[in-house]
Amino acid sequence: MPDGWRIDDIDIEGLRLRCYQPEGAVPAGGWPTVLYVHGGGWDLGNLDTHDWFAHALALRAPVAIVAVEYRLAPEHPYPAPLQDCLRAWTALRNGEVDPDLSQTALMVAGDSAGGTLAAGLCRVLLDAGQPQPLGQLLVYPVLTASKDLPSMVQHAQAPMMSVAGLMQSLRGFLPNDNERIDPCAMPLEAKDFTGLAPALIVVARIDPLCDHGITYAAALTAHGVPAEVWVGEGMVHSSLRAFGVAEVEQAWTRIATQLLRWADG
Length: 265
Description:
The protein is α/β, with parallel strands linked by helices and 265 residues long. The chain is built from seven helices and eight strands, in the order βββαβαβαβααβαβα. It has one domain: Alpha/Beta hydrolase fold, catalytic domain (Rossmann fold, 3-Layer(aba) Sandwich), CATH 3.40.50.
């Protein structure tokens, strides 16, 4: 974590959040803020295991970050994790987290299973007629339970993520088959993507999930939503942790640049 940043753990009616704020004067209207949703197959992870993502982002972009410790499957399957993300988002919108955070300049980000929940949050907000985030940052997200996409076949046994492992995690997160076609659970199952937040989707080429992100970006673009996919050609799933590797550093630069663009309007 950069020197001077303020870090606070916050409890919102039993939901744990961790708020990271840059040093310096608070901008008029409060800090633009990213709600960060961690990965881990929906059944692993917490505020401590994934603070590396917030630290890495903080080193590159002076925006506030609020991480959410959502309930985990299989004890708490869908929709519980998504409900927790919605509760965190609502707390940000209502100014319940910290008075120095903006209530309107808000973005959402998630990696892997967290990318699923971040995209699902945008769908829930759209269906409820609520304002969208300024942008959705999805890092190698899971967006469909289908095995039909080419990367699911080509990279079924890729390092760090196998199709068999993904299916096991999906069974815990979505134990009911009908939930696997719910666009709030698996956002690529939607028929219409109009009105969703602009997106930057970062994927790893050597990953069964690669075509999840590419296909989602194409679907958003086809429905008039600004979306870009960034492909890490030499990357595998979870490789944003490989700090110092040129391709990974390029991914972080693209992420930080996009978040700052959204924050600046």
